Structure formats: structure tokens, C-alpha cells
Amino acid sequence: MSIWDATSPEARDNLLRVVDEQAQDLFAMAAAPGAWEAPTLSTQWQVRDVVGHLIDVTESYFTGFDAARAGASVADALGTKAMQDGLDVGARDLRSLEADVSLARLRADYAKMVDIVRGLSDDEWRSFLVPHKYMGPLPAFFYPVFQLMDYGVHGWDIRQGSGRAHCLNSDAADLLVPFMFVLWSATADLPADAPPCEIGVRILGGHNAGSWKVTAGPDAITYAPAAVDDLPTVLEFDPGSFVLTAFGRSNAGTVRGDATVADRYLNMFFRI
Question: Which GO MF term does the entry hold, naming one (predicted)?
Fold first, then answer.
């Protein structure tokens, strides 16, 4: 269904609905008594650092949209390998803000981002290129998807830090499934002499269930929907487990076939 394909403008309302659910949940968690300096999944970040990170990245999106609208030149993209350190610095630079100030700023940034996304024409959804600080020019639809990653995955990080059992929201996971192949391709760390690695990936449920053939060569990772029954190694995931595995939050899924190939493939990525 097109409302579950975030590359389509027909998905806009559904996507923004899910983003809003995740954002409001994160705002509530961060504002809860005693939460501000509570740990998250990352031992280096407290809840306040997640909020600072979300401010930092959202305001960088504004810079990108402003430059794209003005036709202005921007600095060269820093590359995804620079993200881990750069995003950490951006989050910690805002650590001194009081909780109410920081959350008010994030809420205002979130509302502004929603307005920007709602203001895109259907044609701009796919064709309007907006420079990303680390990844370079991207179609506009990536930015509400990034907001879903920002709020959905980092909300998971906050819940994980609490020590309570929890799961990833199904709608968020379903919308993010196709973009996990993009994430893998953007975070591949392939040795020049690495032999080609071919695997299948099955997503066993949800609105974007299906199978994909993934090839990791010496230069890049490529992927496409395809039957995978004839491949020697297949990874199977539910949507939430796939998202969390691709983001390096967990080691989940089921290996069918040659586990050695799966091990080699799953360890080809750096974390952001």
C-alpha cells in the first residue's frame, strides 16, 4: 500500500501520524520526574543528551532546507563515518540547557519541521533535493523519515535505559523497514579485498513484508526485492528486530543456511 511507502507523497499523512506518536511519547518520557539525567542505551548519553541530539539534527535539517530553497552553496558533506563523533559533539554542546528550555526548543523545532514537510508539494516530495550535513543531497522525503528514526529509535534508547522490557512500535518499524537497506549501504565498511557476499533478507510481517537480495561487493552494497529461496544464506526478521539490528541496537533475527556468510555480512558495518 502506498501509505506505507514513505517515498510516496501519498504516505505523508500516515508517516506524520506515526512520527507524531513517537515524538509525543519521547517528549513525555523526557519530561517525566527524574528522567532528565537518567541513562539510555548508550552509556555515554543521558536522556538530556538524546534531547540535545534531536535539537541538533533537526536544526541542521532547517539549514539544509533553507539552502535548498535559496539555491545557496553548502559545505561538502562530511560523510557517514563522521556522524558518530559529530552527533555526539552536537548533543553534548546542548547539555547545559535546563530541561524546560531544552524541551521547549525541541517541541518548537518539531512543529517547524512538521510545517516544512506539510508544505512540500507532491512533486517536491521526491524531486526536491535537500543537502544533508553528512550524507549530501537527498530527496525531501528522507527528512520526515529521519524524524521517524530520530524519535522512534531514540525513544527506544530511552526505554532501554530504564531497564524495563519493551518493544518497538509496529507502525514505526513497518515504515522504516525499506530504509534499513539504505542505512546498511550508507554504513558499510568493506575491505578492498573483501570477496563478494550475497544474502537474502526476509521480513516476515507488517506492511512492508517481503524478501530482498543483498550483495556486498568490494565497492558497495546493492539490494533489490527478489525471491531468495535459492540463496545459500537468508536472514529472517520481524520488522522491529530488523530495524534494531540494522541500527546496531540488538543482534536479532534468524539465520537460515550458511551461518558463516551471515556472520561475515552482519559484521561489515560501522555504527552511527
Answer: metal ion binding
- Is 130:144 a contact under the CB 8 Å cutoff? no
Quick one: cell of 77? 558533506
Could you please state the CATH topology (level 3) that the domain comprising 2-166 is classified under.
Four Helix Bundle (Hemerythrin (Met), subunit A) (1.20.120)
100-109 pLDDT per residue, tens:
999 999 999 9
Q: Does domain 180-266 bear CATH number 3.30.1050.10? A: yes
Beta bridge partners of residue 224, listed in sequence order: 213
Distance CA(132)–CA(75), nearest Å, equals 10
Contact criterion met (CB below 8 Å) for 180 and 243: yes
The one-letter amino acid code at 42 reads S
Confidence check: pLDDT of 194 > 80: no
> In sequence order, what are the beta bridge partners of 131?
137
Q: Are 11 and 5 in contact (CB under 8 A)?
A: yes
Give the pLDDT band (50/70/90) at residue 154.
very high
**Which tens digits make up the pLDDT trace of 49-86?**
999 999 999 999 999 999 999 999 999 999 999 999 99
Answering whether pTM is above 0.90, one says yes
| Three-class DSSP category at 266 | helix
192-209 core/surface letters (b: 16 or more CB in 10 A; e: else): eeeeebbbbbbbeebbbe
Dihedral class, residue 136 (left if φ above 0, else alpha if ψ from -120 to 50, else beta):
left
Helices (H), 71-200: 83-92, 99-118, 122-127, 142-161, 170-186
Q: C-alpha cell of 130? A: 535537500
